[in-house]
Amino acid sequence: MAKKATQNKLTSHNGKVSIHDVAREAGVALSTVSNALSGKDYVRETTRLKVREAAEKLGYRVSVVARSLRMKRTFTLGVLLADVANPSSPDFLRGIEDIADQEQCGLLVCNTDGQLEKQLTQMRVLLDRRVDGLVLLSQHCQQPAVRALLEDGTPFVMLQRRSLQHEDTYVGANNDEGIGAAIKHLAGLGHKRIGLIRGPRDSSTADERYDAYIEGLKAHRLEINPQWVIQGDYHVKGGYDAGKRFFALDRRPTAILAANDMSAIGVMNAAHEAGLKIPADFSLIGLDDIEMASFSPINLTTIALQRREMGAAATSLLMKMIRQKSTPKPKKKIFPMKLIVRGSTGPAKAD
Amino acid sequence: MAKKATQNKLTSHNGKVSIHDVAREAGVALSTVSNALSGKDYVRETTRLKVREAAEKLGYRVSVVARSLRMKRTFTLGVLLADVANPSSPDFLRGIEDIADQEQCGLLVCNTDGQLEKQLTQMRVLLDRRVDGLVLLSQHCQQPAVRALLEDGTPFVMLQRRSLQHEDTYVGANNDEGIGAAIKHLAGLGHKRIGLIRGPRDSSTADERYDAYIEGLKAHRLEINPQWVIQGDYHVKGGYDAGKRFFALDRRPTAILAANDMSAIGVMNAAHEAGLKIPADFSLIGLDDIEMASFSPINLTTIALQRREMGAAATSLLMKMIRQKSTPKPKKKIFPMKLIVRGSTGPAKAD
DNA sequence: TTGTAGGCGTTATCAG
DNA sequence: CTGATAACGCCTACAA
pTM for the complete prediction? Predict the structure, then answer.
């Protein structure tokens, strides 16, 4: 019995107070402290109280890292996104946080800048930290290297982006519906030439929206013209460039559907520079409904996305997967999109 | 010697492969694996290679949680901010991330929504996870309860907010300079009545800016009028309300200095609603220079803050504190502010 | 240069 | 109901 060195350890706490100290203070066994504090129902109330008092007095705080090691659960979720600075990211993040908070989980947030290499690095950072699950809000979700990392067994959800080649749990939005409503709105205003600024390549969402655009044009028997589809990048600059290219066309669209609000803002910048008025000279529709879209100098008609709700839904799904260790069949949840008509759309100019 | 149960453990890895497995695969001792992988220079190169190969083959990834427990270092930083969704937050976050990444640290990000209660909860979440350090980008930094948590010994930096009652390591901006330049600019344009939308209470930065505003007016011998100082909250809504109150004044300012760009946007919304033109009817200056400020429909004259640089500087300071365990004297780093003249300022209207 | 033997702070499993 | 004791996976003296 005298072999353990535990005894002399009892006195020396180098800064942090541990469960040992609480046990000693409360005059109970170490395991009792753990049981009492973690709310085991078989602990006598008086004991629990005694323990709690001791803990309080000593300023004891559990070490989540020790607990994580033991429980093989870190109570931490990893979030991978292209760019926090994109105005739509924080809303998703908030939704994720809503659930994480209520599940006592922390959030490890990483940016990938849309670069595969960075994404891999960040995924490793997350996995090495043994996060309980991953929320992927980033591109490259069908790259082999990414998939390899995903095979690791850590539960994950795709949010807003997905891999068409894999059956993953996914939360997205009904792009058909959103784009459809936008085109219907424009058609109703008499627009016959509708342009599209595409989202980045390697984005499933951008693909879906493109398809929905084509479908929408067909549905309203509008002209489909490859010149009216310009590649964007979800950023202002891309929208600006696309806008300039549109304006340079001889037969140019009377309405532009932008990949997202930031692209639409880019178009606004370009229009301003070119002396074109919106919606007098052409109509413009964004997508996302970021806060800024509603500011009166911008006043952008756009297709709203329920980002916070989507983030929360994805995280709920993730938590479910984490809880029931076994991976049942992947779930999908598609949120509605809603057209918000503001001041950037108006009747088509008579030709 | 036959008492240890280590041996039968060697075969059973329930999912994750551990350093044990690598040791066995490589035919070396467990500690050698650790040494080899963590780059100890006394490991023979051939051994290191052998180990690396084995690790690769088995798909071994270090468990940062186990390492954290052992090393008493989690390689994780906690970031506390009022709101990720505020457009200026992500830029700070990026700066923080720049350094964290290069230091192999992860970032645990929490929102407080400016609520003391939430801030305390989040701080506990962070501290329980034994983050190596804290970046505080949130209010309430002089509340006793917050200070108590800070006493815990975890290194921390104040970014953009600080406690005037405590000597903390702090990274901020030169508010005098920024506000001074703005007022000089307005005075130069002939403005004699300059209003201010104040930042939230309990914010040191808002206080500093208010002081700078008063100093600026004095320096240019301009009228100081309490009616021209309206409380805002750094949000659009607060700016909108303030704007309306300004417009309702009988003798109203010909120029408004907003607490931040979001407040300024709020004023723009209010002006639009009231049929007032900027800068024809009054001039407006924001503060932050968020990306949006440069978009042509907004085109806001503003005072730029080097957010990303500030975030990075704060984090560098923090890392330094973490490394040299001892807490030397707190450092301060003040960044310049720069007036960016755009289209929201113009000559004062003749009275 | 490599191997051995703790122990970091918890929780879980069993005996009492 | 409470109390020993063994892991969890890793790092680090110290010994060989």
Answer: 0.91
